[in-house]
Amino acid sequence: MWFKYLHKAVLDCNGFPVSGVLSDRCRGVSYSETRICALIGSSVELSSSYTYPRGLTVTRTFWHDKEKKNLSNMKKFTDRLEYKSTTDHSSLSIRDVRESDAGEYQFRFITGTGTDTGLSGKPGAILGVTGLQVKTSAHNVTEGQDVTLTCSTSCSLSNNPTFVWYKNGKPVTNRHVRKNNKLYLISLNTEDHGDYSCGVKGHNLISSAVTLYVKAGVLADYGSEIHTVLHVVRAGIIILLPISLLCALLWIRKRRRSNLSERTESADGEDNATSTPVCSNNSPQAVDTDYENDA
Questions:
Q1: Which of 71, 89, 83 is nearest to 28 (CA)?
Q2: pLDDT digits (tens, 9 = 90+) for 84-104
Q3: What stretches of the chain show up as alpha helix (H) in DSSP?
């Protein structure tokens, strides 16, 4: 009969064994997330819910690490912890998360029944802590090529984070495509050369920068020389054009003077040709005179 009562008490969680130790089948702890990933310097919340037999009172609750050390007594967590509890729920918030905070955390509660030492939820919630690192498909590229940059973490961040990208410390706002934690640099040119880093929206942490070197293409190698030649040619045109026009005007003027001189000489020749017969007419008169004298 006693065994029947005990068996019923264990199943219904409405009674206790003779020893006064509460059966673990009557109690339980669960976590809203068993694996959480947080950025260095951010805040993170671990949440749990717990159950126990009706009619009992929980006298103490706390969080501890895998070695059962109460977090409130650990110096490294001084001024960085915040607890919130109800009759069936407890949450732990850790501010300014550090790499050393990574590990397993368990919630424990104790009732004021007999020799009850409490129950911890095992396994606990595992906290991963990550920084940010930029990885690139290539460091040295030539104009026209494509490169993919990845904002890498050591664990998968929760809550669908939005990644942001920076070039030389300023947000990337140009034509390049951003998707999830990747930045696709399409058809690069020399203006894309620079230091790239990444962050997560709403957080202050920014990764260390990775330098991307973009080399000019084959034709672009001669760009400065071509520009210099064109500049010289343009300057030459600006200088030589007025001189050329002046020379042309002087040549035209000289040509006109030459034509005028030729016309003047031609006119003088015609005048000389007209006066020649006058001199010839005198000879016959002389002949005639002689003829008359002979008579």
A1: 89
A2: 999 899 999 999 999 999 999
A3: 2-12, 223-294
User: What residue has token string 């010289």?
Assistant: 232
- Are 195 and 214 in contact by the 8 Å Cβ rule? The answer is no
pLDDT, one tens digit per residue, over 183-227 is 999 999 999 999 999 999 999 999 999 999 999 875 444 555 555
Cβ contact 71:92 at 8 Å? yes
Nearest to 209 by CA among 220, 221, 195: 195
Length of the chain in terms of residues written:
295
pTM of the model: 0.64
With contact defined as beta carbons under 8 Å apart, do 99 and 129 qualify? yes
Cα 105 from Cα 257, distance rounded (Å): 110
Classified as helix, coil or strand, 58 is strand
- Omega of the bond prior to 277 within 30 degrees of 0, cis? no
The closest of 88, 30, 84, 28 to 58, measured between CA atoms, is 88
CA 93, distance to chain mean position in Å, is: 32
Nearest to 184 by CA among 174, 170, 199, 194: 174
Contact 26, 11 (CB under 8 A): no
Integer CA distances (angstroms), 59 to 111, 117, 140, 295, in order = 5, 11, 64, 185
Retrieve residue 11's tokens: 């199943």
